Task: inverse folding
């Protein structure tokens, strides 16, 4: 959306070693709770409540698994894979000695009793998608409010595997605060591939996102060719996506965007719209969106609309749109079983100014229709509770936020990956929103960094910690059995891609804040006459940046991430070497070896020049351009380094 051109055992242990913030119930970060049972594990999204019950549960070679009657196949398969990864060699049913894992609905008396026996709290009520989980001694119980909650309990169990043959002994009661949580593939430029979408849907299940909106701007059958049926091969892919979404408890929302050519008053166009949506319903889609964004309301697409509604204006456009959307809700959705309320993106989607357009839609639009809103701008620097309350008042309903982060399809994002943590969205927004979806980058796997945060925030915005989740995203990308160097390398790389632009001149997140802080400390020490100490303190940072690309390529389990980031990793390696050479040159100058210093400064300049000529992958990103790596921070330092004065070889 724009207005201008534009897999976890070792991971959990690693997160603890990184000193991540603990969940409620822990006495202090990294500290052992009373009883000496060890720290609480990191779970993403952060549960509403989690408490330690005792020593970790030992997973023997044989585990008994008891399933309730309504546990679906994906949940059974997930539980089995988690237990096998934890060390179980044989899974069997029935009662008997040894570890027993009980999985099912909280309403099942057997499941509730198993939860109680495992030391868990049996809540009187659980909201939709909620679950309770307990693990103690020889019992583990997963109790869901519904099928989704049971699946999410299994996803949490996956993260409680604390090492070889152990599961953290905890009690959890949890549920999401926002009903709709997920992603809208709504960017301009190269759409994701089928394989990328399949991978994304599995990822959404891992992080308890429940919504995927299919709305790629450059899919011609979504927008320009909206009347035409999908070719057989594309329809087969959509069918596979719908089934993949269901397997990971994700609601697949099909969006059709007819506004560029629709004649609102033409019965043939409404018939074509129904036929296109009907083909998706036949595939199993039960959630639909008719976006009307990025179109003009100063002209009609047919003369008949002028006759039916009058001259084009904010008011008449809203009247026509309301009539269309109401018909889709009443004549298409209401006549079919199992459908969710219609969603739309209004033409005015990025502000809270009350206009004739908004007033007309507010008064005429069916109250069930979900209205999407991007915030106080297309790419807002923040979204507050007050902003959302004003939007709800303007639209006459809670709004469904389409958050344009980490999308990078506009001019200010040229050459950038947006890898800063999801931030600047105010805790408490769940009280004012019907849901939250993030618009990602063309680079699907690289988008997981921000999406990790969006999933955590939408589930539990009141307990959200951007830095904690950012580090958890690095651990997730590193995989189940990471090398100790992989996550730090990823975090250093993320820092060089931290800048988050808006449509204006000022970004809403700064570039490379960690690196900038280290360079500022270096300059303070250097100017105070502590040149050698300053150099030695900075060398590990330069070495980390110089080697991070190779470490990431060798250690990251998500190969899609490596492929997405290839040009930036190439450039980072060169910038890192230039950084090291500049420090070498400064050291040589302190030693009085000015000729060697000059040679190393020249080498650093050459390396930086090579890095600056690396461009984005042709056809992958819109807009294309030279890749940016810690720009305005590292390049500025390297350019200034030859001009730094030295105190000579005697400097401390």
Result:
């Amino acid at each position: 959306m724009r207005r201008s051109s534009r897999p976890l055992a070792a991971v959990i242990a690693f997160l603890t070693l990184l000193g991540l913030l603990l969940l409620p119930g822990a006495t202090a970060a990294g500290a052992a709770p009373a009883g000496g049972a060890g720290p609480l594990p990191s779970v993403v999204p952060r549960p509403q409540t989690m408490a330690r019950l005792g020593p970790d549960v030992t997973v023997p070679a044989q585990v008994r698994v008891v399933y309730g009657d309504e546990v679906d196949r994906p949940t059974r398969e997930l539980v089995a894979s988690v237990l096998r990864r934890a060390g179980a060699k044989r899974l069997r049913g029935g009662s008997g000695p040894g570890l027993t894992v009980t999985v099912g609905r909280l309403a099942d008396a057997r499941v509730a009793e198993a939860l109680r026996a495992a030391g868990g709290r049996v809540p009187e009520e659980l909201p939709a998608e909620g679950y309770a989980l307990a693990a103690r001694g020889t019992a583990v119980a997963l109790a869901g409010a519904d099928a989704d909650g049971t699946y999410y309990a299994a996803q949490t169990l996956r993260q409680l595997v604390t090492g070889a043959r152990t599961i953290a002994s905890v009690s959890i009661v949890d549920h999401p605060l926002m009903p709709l949580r997920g992603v809208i593939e709504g960017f301009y430029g190269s759409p994701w591939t089928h394989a990328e979408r399949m991978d994304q849907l599995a990822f959404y299940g891992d992080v308890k996102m429940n919504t995927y909106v299919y709305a790629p701007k450059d899919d011609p059958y979504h927008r320009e060719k909206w009347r035409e049926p999908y070719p057989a091969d594309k329809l087969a892919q959509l069918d596979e996506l719908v089934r993949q979404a269901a397997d990971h408890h994700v609601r697949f929302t099909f969006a059709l965007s007819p506004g560029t050519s629709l004649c609102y008053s033409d019965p043939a166009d409404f018939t074509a719209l129904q036929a296109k949506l009907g083909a998706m319903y036949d595939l199993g889609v039960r959630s639909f969106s008719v976006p009307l964004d990025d179109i003009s309301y100063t002209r009609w697409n047919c003369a008949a609309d002028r006759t039916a509604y009058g001259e084009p204006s904010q008011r008449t456009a809203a009247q026509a749109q309301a009539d269309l959307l109401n018909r889709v809700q009443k004549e298409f959705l209401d006549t079919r079983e199992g459908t969710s309320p219609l969603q739309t993106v209004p033409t005015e989607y990025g502000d809270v100014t009350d206009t004739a357009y908004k007033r007309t839609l507010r008064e005429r639009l069916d109250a069930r229709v979900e209205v999407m809103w991007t915030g106080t701008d297309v790419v807002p620097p923040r979204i507050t509770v007050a902003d959302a309350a004003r939007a709800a008042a303007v639209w006459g309903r809670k709004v469904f936020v389409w958050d344009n982060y980490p999308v990078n399809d506009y001019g200010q994002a040229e050459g950038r990956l947006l890898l800063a943590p999801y931030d600047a969205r105010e805790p408490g927004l769940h009280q004012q929103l019907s849901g939250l979806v993030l618009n990602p980058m063309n680079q699907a796997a690289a988008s997981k960094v921000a999406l990790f945060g969006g999933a955590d925030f939408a589930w539990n915005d009141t307990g959200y910690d951007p830095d904690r989740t950012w580090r958890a995203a690095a651990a997730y990308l590193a995989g189940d059995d990471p090398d100790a160097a992989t996550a730090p390398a990823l975090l250093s790389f993320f820092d060089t891609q931290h800048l988050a632009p808006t449509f204006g001149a000022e970004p809403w997140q700064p570039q490379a804040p960690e690196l900038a802080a280290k360079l500022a400390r270096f300059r303070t020490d250097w100017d105070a006459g502590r040149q050698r100490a300053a150099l030695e303190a900075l060398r590990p940072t330069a070495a980390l940046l110089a080697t991070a690309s190779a470490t990431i390529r060798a250690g990251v389990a998500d190969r899609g991430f490596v492929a997405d980031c290839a040009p930036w990793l190439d450039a980072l390696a060169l910038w890192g070497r230039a950084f090291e050479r500049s420090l070498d040159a400064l050291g040589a100058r302190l030693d009085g070896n000015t000729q060697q210093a000059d040679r190393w400064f020249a080498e650093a300049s050459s390396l930086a020049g090579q890095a600056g000529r690396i461009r984005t992958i042709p056809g992958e990103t819109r807009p294309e351009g030279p890749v940016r790596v810690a720009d305005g921070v590292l390049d500025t330092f390297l350019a200034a380094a030859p001009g730094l004065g030295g105190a000579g070889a005697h400097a401390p």
In short: The first helix runs from residue 9 to 17. The CA atoms of residues 586 and 644 lie 8 Å apart.
